[in-house]
């Protein structure tokens, strides 16, 4: 839905074809980050504003790096350091940012629906970088890229277990939509208070015991407890949560021998995942972070350049050796 509209507001309704084009484009851009000159001219003259009303380390930094690696001008603002701290509304702030003619605003906000609202009041591409417990589509896309790189089988043959605070997790929702659209089998696991029955409607199997959920799984995705979105207690104590739902080596042993373990970060070590697992041989957590840059480069390019349906890093000339302004060749 959103890609055809210049925006990416969520993965719900985005086609398998659109997802695959983005993953293919991102895959070809991974090598750009390994070059000595990590820069392509594709978005020269374009402007990307990162507008973060909620804290972030990975998403904000990687969007900024992605925009800069494509030669766009990238500016980041946070609500704490903006005039929102003096009482200016989200809408007024957004309208003022839009008045400076950016080509894309990347927005993170604690309210579900904030990205869609922004798309209705400003005239540039909007990318949802996480809105409340609704969606975090670029996290899911980079997760899909990481899974696809490691698992060579068809999506329909993959079993993915997503474990933790499902109800508050925008990462779980976006991954659920993306994985189901591509045909993967999705198991959701967590305590009943964090895993409502309604998630069955999206084609997921529900588990209330982590051991059964990870049994024979190809991929395990662990989620953080989102205290900031909890108005009341959803489990007695963190210690008890960890006793039943923390992924440790003993539980990993029940998955496939070549299982991979993902976590979107930030990690709460010893709560949802043990250090030996987070830093162990099955963990691909740092690959997720690295892939975030390539995936966000691919997305920025496709949303900002009209008619683009993919670029390959190898087809672009480094600006350092380019005399005239170069334009990306579209694959
Ligand atoms: N995965 C993720 O969204 O991390 P940040 O909150 O640090 O951006």
What is the strand and helix layout of this fold?
Layout: H1 16-29, E1 47-52, H2 58-69, E2 73-78, H3 90-98, E3 104-109, H4 114-121, E4 125-131, H5 137-150, E5 159-163, H6 170-182, E6 185-189, E7 205-207, H7 210-214, E8 219-222, H8 238-245, H9 249-252, E9 260-262, H10 275-278, H11 285-304
Parallel strand pairs: 1-2, 1-3, 3-4, 5-6, 5-8, 6-7, 8-9
Helix pairs in contact: 1-5, 1-11, 2-11, 5-6, 5-11
The protein binds phosphoric acid mono(formamide)ester.
Largest sheet: 5 strands, parallel
Number of domains: 2
Bound molecules: phosphoric acid mono(formamide)ester
| CATH level 1 class label of the largest domain | Alpha Beta
Structural class per helix/strand content? alpha/beta
Describe the structure.
The chain is α/β, with parallel strands linked by helices and 331 residues long. It folds into 2 domains: 16-134 and 291-316, 3-Layer(aba) Sandwich (Rossmann fold); 137-286, Rossmann fold (3-Layer(aba) Sandwich), CATH 3.40.50. The protein is 34% helix and 14% strand. A 5-stranded parallel β-sheet has the order 7-6-5-8-9. β3 (104-109), α4 (114-121) and β4 (125-131) form a beta-alpha-beta unit. α1 packs across α11. The model is unreliable at 315-331 (pLDDT under 50). The structure holds phosphoric acid mono(formamide)ester.
